[in-house]
Design goal:
The protein is an alpha/beta fold. The chain has one domain: TIM Barrel, CATH 3.20.20. Helix content is 43%, strand content 16%. The chain has ten helices and twelve strands. Strands 3-5-6-7-8-9 form a six-stranded parallel β-sheet. The longest helix has 21 residues. The radius of gyration is 17 Å and the shape is globular. The two termini are 29 Å apart.
Length: 247
């Protein structure tokens, strides 16, 4: 099962309606996509969630991208939206925002932490926090696709630095197309090949578009349905079990 965790649609910044994106997902052999919107208000977020269509063959995951200049604003918005959607993504780039996202266990994905920077946007402090809080770091395919020449080389080096850090601390990563139209979408194995190109072993690269995103989605759905609280999972007969690695 392959998931692309950031595909922009007309409901956010893209050009294509969700039906067109889903049809492309079918052709590419994807099992699911997250079609997030940028956070503007709780009212708009509620309308988005209520109107997000469901399909029998493609899992369309609800998500929100939190974009803010100050860490405290990021944390405040994340707290408000966490129980509203299945995936919470923070728009990275600023080191302070990157670090705040990595330190917040309510965040699922930190997107393009290297965006518009001269460095990778992350250090061992951020990556260690991300590992502890299970915040996945994004490998953004569109950044590489839309850059060229020296800029592409610089972007690749920054992403490779973050991959190296994530490997050192066993921090989860997800590879996304971050497509703004259906033509920017890619099959799961193509996305995995990008993750492999920037330094991940092939098995780990495949995990960034399969095991890791699926686990994020399933865990959050359990929490939203009241079937999991923290590390405690409610099983069908009403009993509970701990899912903590320390149990």
């Amino acid at each position: 099962m392959f998931y692309d965790m950031i595909v922009h649609t007309k409901s956010s910044i893209g050009e294509d309606e969700i039906d067109e994106v889903v049809e492309m997902a079918r052709k590419l052999g994807l099992s699911g996509i997250c079609a997030p919107i940028y956070y503007t208000s709780l009212k708009d977020l509620k309308e988005y969630v209520n109107n997000l269509p469901h399909y029998d063959d493609i899992d369309v995951v609800s998500g929100v991208i939190v974009k803010a200049d100050r860490p405290q604003d990021v944390n405040n918005i994340v707290s408000m939206v966490r129980q509203k959607v299945e995936i919470v993504i923070v728009h990275g780039g600023s080191y302070e925002v990157n670090r705040a996202a990595c330190e917040n266990s309510k965040v699922d994905i930190l997107a393009h932490p290297e965006l518009n920077r001269n460095d990778s946007g992350l250090d061992h402090i951020c990556i260690k926090s991300a590992a502890e809080n299970n915040v996945a770091i994004e490998i953004n395919f569109r950044e590489l696709l839309e850059s060229s020449g020296v800029l592409r080389v610089k972007t690749m080096k920054k992403i490779m630095k973050n991959v190296e850090l994530c490997q050192n601390y066993k921090t989860p990563m997800v590879t996304t197309s971050s497509a703004v139209s259906k033509w920017g979408m890619r099959a799961g194995r193509e996305l995995a090949s990008i993750a492999h190109l920037v330094g991940l072993p092939i098995v780990d690269a495949i995990d960034t578009v399969s095991t890791i995103p699926l686990q994020i989605v399933e865990e959050n759905r359990k929490k939203l349905q009241g079937k999991k609280i923290g590390d405690v999972e409610v099983i069908d007969d009403g009993q509970t079990k701990s899912t903590s690695s320390d149990a």
